[in-house]
Amino acid sequence: xxxxxxxxxxxxxxxxxxxxxxxxxxxxxxTLVHLEGRREQPxxxxxxxxxxxxxxxxxxxxxxxxxxxRELPRSLSLFIGNVDAARDGLRRxxxxxxxxxxxxxxxxxxxxxxxxxxxxxEIMRARRPFASVDVHNNTGxxxxxxxxxxxxxxxxxxxxxxxxxxxxxxxxLGVQSLAFAEICPAVTVECGKVGQSAGEEHALEFLxxxxxxxxIPYEPVPEQDVDLFHxxxxxxxxxxxxxxxxxxxxxxxxxxxxxxxNFRELPAGSTLACLNGVEGMxxxxxxxxxxxxxxxxxxxxxxxxxxxxxxxxxMFTLDERVVRQDCLxxxxxxxxxxxx
Length: 340
Known about the structure:
Blueprint: H1 23-27, E1 31-35, E2 37-47, H2 55-66, E3 72-80, H3 83-87, H4 112-127, E4 131-136, E5 145-148, H5 153-160, E6 165-168, H6 176-180, E7 186-190, H7 197-212, E8 227-236, E9 243-245, E10 252-254, E11 271-275, E12 284-286, H8 294-297, E13 298-301, E14 304-307, E15 312-314, H9 320-325, E16 329-334
Parallel strand pairs: 2-3, 2-4, 4-7, 5-6, 6-8, 9-10
Antiparallel strand pairs: 1-3, 5-7, 8-12, 8-16, 10-11, 11-14, 13-14, 15-16
Helix pairs in contact: 2-7
C-alpha cells in the first residue's frame, strides 16, 4: 500500500483562501510542502492534526498571504494533517487513529497513519529543522499557552514567545512535539477555542516571529517571566460509565461549568461531580509512567466526587466526543524553574 502523504512542489493558489472542508479535494490527502525562504534551515509547522481545530490553518493562510509577493524570512516546511476529518468538521473520523498520537515514540499499533508520521519525521530530520511548532485549539475554557516536552532553555525561550503560561508534559506518547523535541526546539501552541479571531491573530504573529528568529538563545528564562506547570496526570472516563454535565440521568454528573476550573488551583475537597449508583472510583487517572493514581487525586464521599489534594486542571472539556475519543482533561502542578 502506498503512502498517505502528498508532497507537492508548491501549494495551489486556492489554498490561501480554502475552507477546511475543501482541503481534502484540493490537496488530495495529508500534505507536506517545503517553501523556500531567506534562511535555509526550515521552521516546521503542523496544522490540522485534529481536523476540527482550524486556527492553525487560518493563521498559516494569513501568513502566506502576508508574504505572497515577497520572500519568507526563513524556509517553511508545512504539514497539513487530517484533511479528511476537516471535511466533516471532526477531530478524527471513525476508524482513524488520532493524528497527534501516532508520531515516532508512540505506543499505538501499526497503521498507515503511523507510518506516514514516521515518513514526515525522517524527511524533516534530514532537513535539520530550526524549530517545530504544532498549532492546536482546545474545547474547554483555557488561556492561550505553550507546551514543551523538555525542560531546556531553548524550548522554554521558544514557548515563552507565545505565552508566559507554559505546560511541561511527557504523556501522552506519540504527539508531534514530543517526537520533534528529539531533533530541535519544539512547542505545541494551544490557541483557545475554534472560531476566536484572537487565537488566529496570536498564532499568526507567533509564527511570523519564529520565521524572523536568527537563533533561539540558550540563556535561561527569568523565573518571573513565565508560569510553568507540569502535567502530572491524564483523566479519563471509563466507557462503562455514562456521564453528563449538570443535572441529567447519568452515572457521573459533572458540574455544569467544569471547564471553568481550567488553570485554577483547586483546594482539596472541591466537588467535581455527583455520582448515581456508582460504587468506587469512577475515573481512570494515570501518571507519566502510566500508573493508576486516581486515589492520589480524587476521593468519593457521600456520592460526590471530590479532589483529594490541591490540583490544577487543564483542558477539562464539556465536549462528550472529545471525552470519549481522548480524555476528560489533565491535572497539573506548578514547576519551578529552579527545579532544573
